[in-house]
Amino acid sequence: MSVRAAEHLFAFDHPHAVAPRELTGLLGGKGAGLAEMTSVLGLPVPPGFTVGLPVCLAYRRDGWPADLDDALAAHVAALETRIGRRLGDPADPLLVAVRSGAPRSMPGMLDTVLNLGLTDATVDGLAAVSGDAVFAWDSYRRFLTMYATTVLGVPQDALPAGAAPTDEAGLRARVADLKARIAAAGAEVPQDPARQLRGAVEAVFRSWDSPRARAYRAHEGIDDDLGTAVNVQAMVFGNRDDRSGTGVVFTRDPATGENRAYGDFLPRAQGEDVVAGTARTLTLADMAARLPEAHRELSERLGALERHYRDMCDVEFTVESGTLFILQTRVGKRGAVAAVRLAAELAADPSIALTRDEARARLDDATIDRARAEVVAAARRGAAAGALVRGLGASPGRVSGAVVLDADAAADAEGPVVLVRPETNPEDVHGMAVSVGILTSTGGLVSHAAVVARGWGIPAVVGAQELVVGPADVRTREGEVLFATGDTITIDGTTGEVWLGAATDDGGTAGLTDDEIVARDLPALAVLLGDVSGQPVARTSSSMSSANPT
Fold it and tell me: How far is C-alpha 73 from the chain's CA centre?
């Protein structure tokens, strides 16, 4: 059955017959969120359009649809009219981001290309119109790197390594080196923005069937036949100047359920820098000190989104020269204990007022069992002294396991292992899925390692910056070996502490039953189950909503 692609491309403000949030099967999760924020909530969302899921399914079945090039060109022309810039204009170019958008969240598994539209001709136009050649050439460097690795399949290790230059001459030289190395790998980044766009859209489609995406879907129980939408959106630049930055924030703490914004901010950066886990991120309090007006507006927008979706939201944002833009929202993944507390607190919050049935429907029996187990384990674990190092507690729980230093080793190991990496990336998910814990030396609370571990209920410590992870061992920055492959370590994803050796349980709770610990430390569970009197309550399986942690 042939599909007319033109019938399945939609501007973010397209007047759908139903609320866009109900159209994840057509627009994907990200596209539905962008349309909802644009057309219903009126939030500051950069304009763009969504290539719907039927087009991806047609591509997977029959290849590139015959009319998709023309459909893309028509929507790009409409975007150019709205923005007042033209893709490929050497004087004042429009640049776009191309992002995936599956019906169910798959963090980091599918492809993204930013700064699309930069060429040898347009980079000078961007430098002229922005008045900042360093910004323009840094953006070109970012684009060439991302396009080469994502679209053309050039290995990352074939490209220049090390920190990017911070001056115009150095960046020009880095771009020349990039282009030479891409050519040496037998590839070339197109100088025609229309060809760039086609390549990026096709790369997103292809990424649905990548090994990493298949491994993630197998763990999550996601149907392989769903496919992904593609979102093409006007760029805003968190790397523009000192009043710019980017971040990811949850409206509440996804590890504990605490009612506080939780996330990372990175000044003079683009979104992939935050989630990649390779940069040292700042806190939202740091953002408030640097950009108080943008932070104040962000706080207001977070409240509006949580009230609208009646749930904890996961939000990506960029600040360009002091102006806030919201790039994505979705119902956020959370740990089991957080899921219980959130359900109870959102039922008690008069601005959201979930009914008891709605709150209970957000928890299936597996989530309840995991929350009980985590609370009991936390109570019985006791205090431990002599921590080797402390990072950021990103996903709660204390576990012990043998050290493995790459995902393949984790997948091949027998017995419990802790995966230790500088940072994780989507290619590591097969090893993450079988590890009892994850430890990284870089990254923040919303890095890839943190988000995936939290969603899967795997204890994780990230950003342990004193560690240098090598191919065979982990050392201090001074070169002292701390532990090596096969050694046993213990990590605590609540406190962020790391110890040598196995954990011991001595929490001083020998006189309490498991039920008494749960009643003491997780009273929200009794409220949700109707067991406020202490009497047993029948538990029934309920369908999992998008709010559930797995």
Answer: 29
Give the bridge partners for 233, in sequence order.
48, 97
CA distance 157 to 134: 24
Whole-number Å distance between alpha carbons of 351 and 329: 19
Which residue(s) pair with 439 in the sheet? 420, 461
Tokens of 217: 């879907």
Report d(CA 70, CA 426) in Å as an integer. 33
Is 450 inside any structural domain?
Answer: yes
CA 93, chain centre distance (Å): 28
- Tell me how many degrees the CA angle 116-119-120 measures, rounded to the nearest 5: 160
User: Do 522 and 490 share a structural domain?
Assistant: no
The reply to whether 240 falls in a domain is no
- Count of domains in the chain? 4
CATH number of the domain bearing residue 316? 3.30.470.20
330-388 pLDDT, tens digit per residue, is 999 898 999 999 999 999 999 999 998 999 999 999 999 999 988 888 887 765 667 89
Q: Give the model confidence (pLDDT) of 28-63 as tens digits.
A: 999 999 999 999 999 999 999 999 999 999 999 999
Which 3 state secondary structure label does DSSP give 508?
coil
Same domain? 19 vs 167: yes
pTM of the shown model: 0.88
- Beta-carbon contacts of residue 235 (< 8 Å; ≥ 6 apart): 46, 95, 96, 97, 114, 115
Structure confidence at residue 537 as a pLDDT band (50, 70, 90): very low
